């Protein structure tokens, strides 16, 4: 798997305080062989982008349940670009209505995951993205 040895940052931007899903994804990716950095709760897009650059990650995963997914994905992409990290991919997961998928992709999300998706499917998709 190409996920093995890749560096993945999992972030919880915004004010949402529910991080069980983010922790499940972080542990699942770690168990699949990735080097995972979890930023913890309530981080700003600026903090997440700076940490991603400092940690030299391949991809940033954003877990968002607050309904502000469009703004947070856009802000994180903009901050990564400002820091010269346009090559760092972003995926997003959480409570995200399907009618927002196209806009999220316009803002830079390369994949969108929902709570209903099997974990092995999420790992396979991330693996494909990093291949």
Verbal overview:
This protein is of the alpha/beta class. The protein has a single domain (7-130), classed as Cobalamin-binding domain (Rossmann fold, 3-Layer(aba) Sandwich). Helices cover 41% and strands 20% of the residues. It has helices at 20-31, 45-54, 69-82, 101-106, 119-130; strands spanning 7-11, 35-38, 59-64, 89-94, 109-113. It has a 5-stranded parallel sheet with strand order 2-1-3-4-5, sandwiched between helices. The chain is globular, with a radius of gyration of 13 Å.
Q: Main β-sheet: number of strands, strand sense, barrel status?
A: 5 strands, parallel
Distance between the termini: 8 Å
Q: From the structure provided, what is the oligomeric state, counting identical versus distinct chains?
A: single chain
Strand content: 15-25%
Strand order of the largest sheet: 2-1-3-4-5
What's the β-strand tally? 5
Helix content: 40-55%
- CATH domain class name: Alpha Beta
Using the 3D structure, state the CATH architecture: 3-Layer(aba) Sandwich
The CATH homology group name: Cobalamin-binding domain
Number of helices: 5
Number of domains: 1
Residue windows where pLDDT falls under 50 for at least 5 positions: none
Provide the residue-averaged pLDDT.
96
Q: What overall form do the CA principal axes indicate?
A: globular
SSE series: EHEHEHEHEH
The radius of gyration is 13 Å
The name of the CATH topology is Rossmann fold
Secondary-structure-based class equals: alpha/beta
């Amino acid at each position: 798997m190409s996920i093995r040895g890749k560096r993945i940052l999992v972030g919880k931007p915004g004010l949402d305080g529910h991080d069980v899903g983010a922790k499940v994804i972080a542990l699942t990716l770690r168990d699949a062989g990735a080097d995972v950095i979890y930023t913890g709760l309530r981080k700003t897009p600026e903090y997440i982008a700076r940490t991603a650059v400092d940690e030299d990650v391949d991809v940033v995963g954003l877990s968002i349940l607050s309904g502000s997914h469009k703004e947070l994905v856009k802000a994180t992409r903009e901050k990564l670009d400002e820091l010269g990290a346009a090559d760092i991919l972003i995926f997003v997961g959480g409570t995200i209505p399907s009618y927002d998928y196209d806009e999220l992709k316009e803002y830079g999300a390369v994949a969108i995951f929902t709570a209903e998706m099997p974990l092995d499917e999420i790992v396979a998709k991330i693996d494909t993205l990093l291949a």
